[in-house]
Design a protein that fits this description.
Largest sheet: 5 strands, mixed
CATH superfamily: Immunoglobulins
Structural class: mainly beta
Number of domains: 1
Helix content: under 10%
Strand order of the largest sheet: 1-8-7-3-4
CATH architecture: Sandwich
Number of helices: 0
Length: about 110
């Protein structure tokens, strides 16, 4: 699981916001085009609960199937950079997740 910029834990039904850390104030440089992916598929306009606003990805009413790997790809005339996020959706209130020490995630309880 190395290479993830961030790991997010979110409950079913909550909103999720992932930020793409890009410099929009390019100062004469090539401004990047931002593309979001979930599990290798490009997030498209047809994804009803998903919205790309500015450089951020917003997911409303998160469902269990929203767990996965999200990638923000910033592309300009000089190339592209990917920033990865691991999102784990907890099944609901009072959920507990115990993930091994090698994952960077530890016991997490939601009340």
């Amino acid at each position: 699981m190395d290479g993830y910029r961030r790991r997010h834990l979110v409950n079913v039904g909550e909103a999720l916001r992932l930020d793409c850390p890009v410099d929009r104030d390019a100062g004469g440089r090539s401004v990047p085009i931002i593309t979001w992916y979930k599990d290798g598929q490009e997030v498209s306009v047809g994804w009803e609960r998903y919205r790309v606003r500015h450089d951020d990805l917003l997911v409303r009413d998160v469902e269990q199937d929203d767990s996965g790997v999200f990638v923000c790809r910033a592309t300009n005339g000089f190339g592209s950079v990917d920033v990865k996020y691991l999102v784990l959706v907890l099944p609901g209130q009072f959920a507990e997740v115990n993930v091994g020490p090698n994952t960077g995630l530890y016991s997490y309880s939601v009340c």
